[in-house]
Amino acid sequence: MASRNNRRATPQPRRASKAQVNIPRGTTARPPRTVGRPSPRTVSPYAKRDFGSAQPRVSTVKVGSLAQSQISRDARVNRSYRAHMAKVFVLLGVLAVLAAGVAGVYFSNLFSIRQVTVSGVEHLTSTEMTQLANVPSDTTLLRVDAGAIKNSIMRDAWVADVDVQRIFPETLNLAVTERAIGAVVEVSVDEGKSIEEWALSVDGMWLCSIPEEGSEAAAAISPKIYEDKAEVLAIKDVAYGVMPEVGTYCNDESIVNALDIVTGLTTDLKNQVKTVSATSTENTTITLDSNIEIAFGSADDIRDKERVCLQIMADHPGSVSYINVRVATSPTWRTT
Length: 336
Fold this sequence. Notes:
By secondary structure, the chain is an alpha/beta fold.
């Protein structure tokens, strides 16, 4: 056993101060930190490196679990597909029922046409319209061929347009737009031995031959035609050889020129015109109710020619018998 003196005599190792810590060789001492400037981050040579923490985590799944997951996914897909197909079949069934119902109504006698009405007609009789429309007796508002009926009615020269209207439950209405008479043309027939009067529309179509009023043929046409004849102008002195045909457009230049003059005049002069002579385009002559003859010529510059005629008659009231305005800028006239 050592004595107290021996223990005291045993030298103790001196503790090194912080300033005297030995730094292993090969390492660099940490530089002193500078106030205001961050020191670069350094790794302590004494820090314990853990390389195992950087390795990816690996989990294990049993093969049976993967197979079970795939089976569940396939089951969900199959259920979704069956539900979708069920909706499709239901929709197809509804459409089939609707189609059957529509077909049943279409081919049934529902909405049978029991009444045919006509509007907008003044120059065609009810008998003529019935013959033109030719609506089948066994048809319905659903099965009626509106296009065929329209084409049939449009064959008549008086008809400019027609609208076939279905009025449920049982009426078919024919809304007709008629052509208007622009003039009555006196046409020579039988080698010039007789005259026929023809209605000419505003757009130049031959409408019909106008029989003598009071005759048997006159009783078969609409009275409105004779009312219009009394209001429109007559085109006379047409050259022999003009052959009107119902439903065709007039191609005689002298008649077309006269029609353009008749329809182009304004009320001030038109109301005074009695007849229009159409021997040729350049020799077209207007005769007024006062028996003043106006050599009008072509239908060019109608407004200027009309203005000159009215001015001459105003300057020489009751004394003018002839006016020539074939050239509107160089008119001539004759007084009695």
